[in-house]
Structure formats: structure tokens, C-alpha cells
């Protein structure tokens, strides 16, 4: 079965192929298939929650950008001569918007082409191995999202490693395979280093404790307890459930906060945009 899946790498990831291969070796195909089904269901559920939470903000942002573009490129250039003829004092922010509007009115085609080309080059770069590494590094440096992704990656790693160890797969090979469950180049490299240290005789708990920037101290401590008691698979399963619940809590809070934060941000930007038009008009009326 694993050989058949390997011929369809565009559909099945290395993680799926390696999990099925290990199941064929250990004779636990039914259990691993159940794990893969649950894993995929969790992934789809998490992605759908985040995607549904982002639909409304994206629509609002696109509409705001469209309205702002019309004001800058159409409305402001038409009322600029009125301000100049009346010698009305124009605030600095309004002068900046007027200059931007004149520029967009004359060169909007080139601006659209430049932005499109820039986005195409960016997406093409992010599709390369170096681009993915840079994106993963940036993702792990963001203050709020770092904790979210760290907990998500730890939960994935612990759950996969637990299933592999239960299936009788050697610990070093299990770590390497579990690393493919994490869609982050940095974590994959770190787990490769961890596997090499374990291969040289280091305890898994010690190797994880050395990677304190990627694994919380609690992970190394619980893995150490599992190694001491001979119940490593059970402790890894507990780690997975603990951090999975934390991920659910963070995502729930994110879904609840993103819309109010967006409304506040769009409100402030809209207020500044319309104030830049209304203040000069108010000064113009005062001259009569």
C-alpha cells in the first residue's frame, strides 16, 4: 500500500506514506489508518474555523481598499482645485492624500501591474525551500502567533510520535517520521538534530530540553517521566491532548477578537480618511 501511495506524492504527503509504511512493518495498519483519519479531521476542522473567521474581515478589508482607492483617485483630485483657488489651509495629512490621489489617477495602471508582479514574485519565492524557511522563521517571530504555532507543532509531534512508538517503530525513525507532520522547516531541522542526538545515545528528554526555543520545558519533563516509567507513548499522548486543548482555546479567542479588532482598525482609518476631506471643506465654509 505504501508503494502505491508513494506514486501519488501530489496527493499524499511524506508523513502519510511513512506512517502507512511503518504500519505495514508492525502490523498495525488498522490503528494507523484510524489515527490518520482523526488527524486529517482535526486539520480540516482547525483550518475551516480559522478560514470562516477570516471571511468577513477579508471582505471588509477589500471593500475598504476599494472605497479608499475611489476617494484617492477620483474624489480628491476633483476637489483639489477648489482648495487651491480659495487659499484654504490644508492639513498635512490631506496634502499627502491629495498628492497620492494625483499620482494614482495618472499611474494607476502601472501601480496595479507593479503590485501584481510583486505578489507573483513573492508567491513564487515562498514556493521555494528557501522561501518556506524564511516564511516559517517570520511566523515563529510574531509575538502572538509564535505561541499558537508552537503549541500546534508540539501537539502534532507528540501525537505522531506516540502512535509510532506504540507501533513498535524504532525511536530514531519515529522522530524523523514525526517531524514530517510539522509543516515548518525550522521544526523539521530541529527534530532531525534531536534524532541524531538520540542515535548517539542521548535521552530524548535531554535532546528536547536543549531546544528550549521550540519545545516548552514541560515537554522535556513529561518525556523524561515517560522514559523513566517505561510509559513514553502514554505521556506523549497526554502532551498531545494538553497542547491540543490549548490550541483550541487560542483559536477560539482569536476568532472572537479578530472581528472587533478589525472593526476598530477600519473605523480609525475611515475616520482619518473622511476627516482629511471634511476638515478642508469646513475651513472653506468658514471663509464665506
Automatic annotation (TrEMBL):
Spans through the membrane: 54-76, 107-126, 261-282
Superkingdom, natural source: Bacteria
Organism of derivation: Candidatus Harrisonbacteria bacterium RIFOXYD1_FULL_40_9
Keyword Nucleotidyltransferase (UniProt): no
Residues annotated as domain Type II secretion system protein GspF: 2-77, 157-280
Full protein name: Type II secretion system protein GspF domain-containing protein
Subcellular location: Cell inner membrane
UniProt entry keywords in alphabetical sequence: Cell inner membrane, Cell membrane, Membrane, Transmembrane, Transmembrane helix
Protein family per UniProt: Belongs to the GSP F family.
Source species taxonomy: Bacteria, Candidatus Harrisoniibacteriota
